Amino acid sequence: MANQNRTNDLNRRQMLTATATAGALLSAGPAMAAADAKIDLAGKSILITGCSSGFGYLGAEIYAAYGAKVFATMRNLPRSEAAALAKVAEEGGLDITILALDVLSDESVTKAVAEAERLNGGALDVIINNAGVGTGAPVELQDIEAMQLLFETNVMGPQRVARAALPAMREKKSGLIINISSQLGRVMVPGMGLYSSTKFALESMSEQMAYELVPHGIDVTIVQPGGFPTKIWKNGNQYTAPMLDRASEERKAAYPELVAGALRNGGGSTNPKDVPNEIAALIAKSPGTRQLRLPVHPRGKPQVGINEVSAKTQVAMLGNSPFGPWVKDVNGRS
After folding, report:
1. Residue 189 within any structural domain of the chain
2. What's the confidence (pLDDT) of residue 157?
3. Nearest one of 236, 328, 273 to 32, comparing CA atoms
4. How many angstroms separate the CA atoms of 54 and 58, rounded?
5. N- or C-end of the chain: fewer Cβ atoms within 10 A?
6. Is residue 30's pLDDT more than 60?
7. pLDDT at site 235
8. Which residues are part of the catalytic machinery?
9. How many CB atoms lie within 10 A of CB 145?
10. Cα–Cα distance between 276 and 28 in angstroms, integer?
11. pLDDT tops 60 at residue 292
12. How would you label 155-182 residue by residue, b for 16+ Cβ within 10 Å and e otherwise?
């Protein structure tokens, strides 16, 4: 019995070490270089979801600084984050309009996109589906309430926004949809629950859209950030904590190490501005040349091999089919 207890303790320590190592791999590395002063987004109109913090907030500033007309959206207005962003825009002479948009609501999305198009005088050039939520803990502990929130936000949300913006883009025969995925949309770390599942779904939906929109002159790019110190996990704790409270003691006892690490507040020492700067460079590229997937991290990019195999597999499967031209077009970009 004593030997069995020692074995169990060893296995638990090994699991904790593996989880910590995986987290470090996703977030390690020095910050990337500062923004490229040559990027010019003048004349571009960009709508971003989830601008209260993280990549959305930083992106609104950065794209506007490059000359873009930015529609920064967030829910629950008025709020302090909106006031702070408005102050930044005023002091910097940046073209940023803040609009209310809740990706969980069809009505809210439709209203915000329509207002942005009205103010823009027509179709938007770029949609950045950035709003997202993350919860920790094993899959078994993620009940239907938690699962619905994750999929409604991370998958249905981008779909709602894209559907609202695409008719005008199709009429104009141009546009760019950028969906913010994650390294965890291609690789998995135990204890991340259904977050990876939503990002895998977003990757699939986005790639499907990329093929289908080729005839309409609209590009789709999936951005795959690694670990960055944004508030996604801290914000997600407000959903993870009550989810753990709802879970039975019997279920939690089955995953002691993963439950202990379910509440997160990290992302490493990397520079979160790397992501919007990379996106800005992507937006500035010529239509029809933007790559399908954009991994962003100063060092660890474990998903790259999967991206490459996936592209080759799609071309091998459909390259000689009626869809071949679309598939080869999208997967031939770099």
Report:
1. yes
2. 98
3. 273
4. 6
5. N
6. no
7. 82
8. 52, 181, 195, 199
9. 12
10. 18
11. yes
12. bbbbbbbbebbbebbbeeeebbbbbbbb
Instruction: Say how far apart CA 172 and CA 287 lie, in whole Å.
Output: 13
pLDDT at 256 over 90: yes
Q: Report CA-CA distances (Å) from 250 to 103, 127, 145, 246, 278.
A: 35, 44, 19, 12, 45
pLDDT at 262 over 50: yes
> Distance (Å, rounded) from C-alpha 129 to C-alpha 111?
16
Establish if 200 belongs to a structural domain.
yes
Do the domain assignments include residue 258?
yes
Please give the distance of CA 309 from its chain centroid, rounded to a whole number.
22
Mean pLDDT of 1-19: 41
**Percentages (nearest 5) of helix, strand, coil residues in the chain:** 55, 10, 35
What letter represents residue 15's amino acid?
M
Q: Residue 87 to residues 73, 93, 94, 97, 230: CA-CA distances in angstroms? A: 15, 10, 10, 11, 21
Peptide bond into 78 cis (omega under 30): yes
**Residues near 106 by Cβ (< 8 Å), separated by ≥ 6?**
160
Give the pLDDT score at 131. Answer: 97
215-250 pLDDT per residue, tens: 999 999 999 998 877 777 778 788 899 999 999 999
Q: In total, how many domains does the chain have?
A: 1
Looking up residue 132, the CATH number of its domain turns out to be 3.40.50.720
Lowest mean pLDDT among 18-32, 193-207, 225-239: 18-32
DSSP element (H, E) containing 332: none
Percent of the chain with pLDDT over 70: 88
Whose tokens are 């609202």? That residue is: 164
In whole angstroms, what is the distance from residue 166 CA to residue 210 CA? 12
For range 302-308, the mean pLDDT? 97
Q: Is residue 32 part of a domain?
A: no
- Rounded distance, CA 58 to CA 274, Å? 10
Range 96-112 average pLDDT: 98
Q: Compute the Cα dihedral for 264, 268, 271, 277 and give only its sign.
A: negative
The span from the CA of 110 to the CA of 92, in Å, is 30
CB atoms within 10 A of CB 186: 23
